[in-house]
Specification:
Elements: E1 3-9, H1 21-29, E2 39-45, E3 53-58, H2 65-78, E4 82-89, E5 92-98, H3 103-111, E6 117-122, E7 125-131, H4 134-141, E8 150-156, E9 171-172, E10 180-187, H5 190-199, H6 209-222, H7 227-237, E11 240-247, E12 252-256, E13 265-268, E14 272-276, H8 279-283, H9 288-291, H10 303-306, E15 311-315, E16 332-336, E17 348-354, E18 368-373, E19 389-392, E20 405-411, E21 425-430, E22 446-449, E23 460-463, H11 467-479, E24 489-493, H12 505-510
Parallel strand pairs: 15-16, 16-17, 17-18, 18-19, 19-20, 20-21, 21-22
Antiparallel strand pairs: 1-8, 1-14, 2-7, 2-8, 3-5, 3-6, 4-5, 9-10, 10-11, 11-12, 13-14, 22-24, 23-24
């Protein structure tokens, strides 16, 4: 598990003409350190170096760093460049140079230079990455002092390759200046594609599968494709679960695999566009009036309040995870703001109101009680719920009601793909559209959809809805303030996958 973030300033208005992008990326990354503490990194775009190119290098020896710097400077001059400035901080080397040749020629020459690991070449950007947390990286590299127009960041939990500086993100799309990538996920066709790209002459510096995305985009750009087309093509060409961000000189882009297994949330104001793995990262850069920082805070883990039957208000929940979990008493809980993953899960009795968005798996394993989310909910809302009622006022992500065993899930907007997957009992009401594979492999239960259905899942079928059912559904929606829905498509299990008319030998012996 890793965390990604990105920020773009639409209008840069400051004395220097640049925004505090470095500081903002650190503020976005630090709340996500639970997603990975092995390494951190940023790309900051929009800098104004005193030369044509800004080169970032790492070497594996602090003692040899001055010699590596001297050799790298000689390499720049050898290919026709002029060194404008240079420095090394420990093992990290930064060179600004004037150079009129092909970037690929310079990059290839530097990679042949002993001791050089090339992290990036940019006209207005640089990649800075290191082992450890974002705060530790900021202390060593003074990221917060770097200004720009936009950038991307990453925190890493290493799962597929070693922990070192080179395997940290971002990865530069060699040899294209100002193109770099951060990634959360796993590519299952990494080795196949790597062999193919190496046969075509592409260069890899690490064994990190995320580097493949940078190489993939570089190959697409080299063949004349636009960045947007390359991003769209990656959805079919890259296999696995992934969410990645790409920074270019002009802006930011992102792509998610078709299963949307890796989270991503976005925010847009008049001034900025921000993207991150979790809402808590976005709140790190919101002004106080939007982030709720002026509010006091009552910790939701205060069991004396939560279990005494009192009404509890949690101020400034700040999209934290696991809020209001495991409460088995009748009480009322109000979250005055958005919550993170698994909010209001494992409940038996409480009534919960979430005034904002909810992350993954809100209402997971709800046994009894009521949960109301005023805005959108992430993937797997109401997963394995056994009773009670979960209402989502906005849209719900993929796999809502997965393995649902009872209760009612009401979605005021659209529902993502695989809603009702392996549903066993209960009822799902969708006031908007439903994504692909609705009701896939459902055993029992009923799904009602007011809008369009992208496709039915395996063994799901449509059957007529009775007048009594319609009256019942409309009454439920009216209690939620929804009065404009008048017709629904009813989806149930066709029961073709299972033999319901005969018992197995052990079942017979048990009767």
């Amino acid at each position: 598990m890793c965390g990604v973030s990105g920020i773009l300033h639409k209008i840069v208005a400051s004395a220097s003409g640049l925004a505090p992008v470095g500081e903002q990326l650190i503020r976005m990354l630090e709340p996500m350190t639970h997603r990975g503490m092995d390494s951190s990194g940023v790309t900051i775009v929009g800098e104004q170096p005193e030369g044509d190119l800004l080169v970032r290098i790492w070497t594996d020896s602090v003692r040899n760093a001055p010699d590596v710097l001297a050799r790298a400077e000689d390499t720049v001059r050898l290919v026709g460049g002029v060194v404008c400035s240079s420095r090394h901080t420990g093992q990290f080397i930064r060179i600004v140079a004037n150079y009129e040749g092909e970037t690929q020629e310079l990059a290839a020459a530097l990679l042949e230079t002993p001791g050089v690991a090339l992290h990036s070449i940019g006209c207005t950007s640089e990649v800075i990455k290191d082992v450890g947390t974002p705060m530790a990286m900021d202390e060593r590299h003074d990221i917060g002092a770097i200004r720009g127009t936009h950038g991307i960041g990453h925190v890493r939990m290493a799962t597929e390759s070693i922990v070192d500086v080179n395997h940290a993100h971002p990865f530069w799309a060699y040899p294209f200046p100002d193109v770099s990538v951060v990634h959360n996920g796993q590519l299952t066709n990494y080795h196949k594609l790597r062999r193919m790209y190496e046969d075509d002459g592409h260069h890899f510096q690490t064994g990190n599968d995320s580097e493949l995305i940078a190489v993939y985009l570089a190959d697409k750009l080299a063949h004349g494709e636009g960045l947007e087309d390359a991003l769209r093509a990656s959805l079919a060409d890259l296999d696995g679960t992934f969410t990645y961000l790409v920074a270019t000189r002009e802006g930011l882009g992102y792509a998610k695999d078709e299963w949307s297994a890796k989270p991503l949330v976005t925010m847009e104001t008049d001034d900025i566009i921000a993207i991150a793995s979790e809402e808590i990262a976005l709140r790190g850069i919101l002004p106080p009036e939007m982030a709720g920082e002026e509010m006091g805070r009552v910790e939701p883990q205060n069991s004396e309040l939560a279990t005494s039957g009192n009404e509890v208000t949690v101020l400034n929940p700040n999209a934290r995870h696991n809020l209001g979990v495991g409460i088995f008493e009748n009480c009322s809980i109000r979250f005055a703001g958005s919550v993170g993953y698994y909010a209001a899960s494992l409940l038996d009795g409480p009534e919960v109101v979430i005034e904002g968005n909810a992350g993954w798996a809100v209402g997971d394993n709800l046994m009894n009680g009521k949960i109301s989310v005023t805005r959108d909910a992430g993937a797997s809302a109401g997963s394995t719920m056994r009773g009670g009622e979960l209402f989502i006022g906005g849209n719900a992500g993929a796999r809502a009601g997965i393995s649902m065993k009872g209760g009612s899930l009401v979605i005021g907007g659209n529902a993502g793909f695989l809603t009702g997957f392996m549903m066993q009992k209960g009822r799902i009401i969708i006031c908007g559209d439903a994504g692909e594979a609705l009701g896939d492999s459902m055993y029992e239960g009923t799904i009602y959809v007011a809008g369009n259905i992208a496709s039915l899942g395996a063994d799901a079928t449509v059957e007529p809805m009775s007048e009594d059912e319609l009256i019942d559904v409309l009454a439920i929606l009216e209690s939620k303030g929804i009065t404009d829905k008048r017709s629904f498509t009813k989806v149930v299990s066709a029961k073709r996958f299972y033999n319901y008319d005969s018992l197995e030998r052990l079942e017979k012996s048990a009767l």
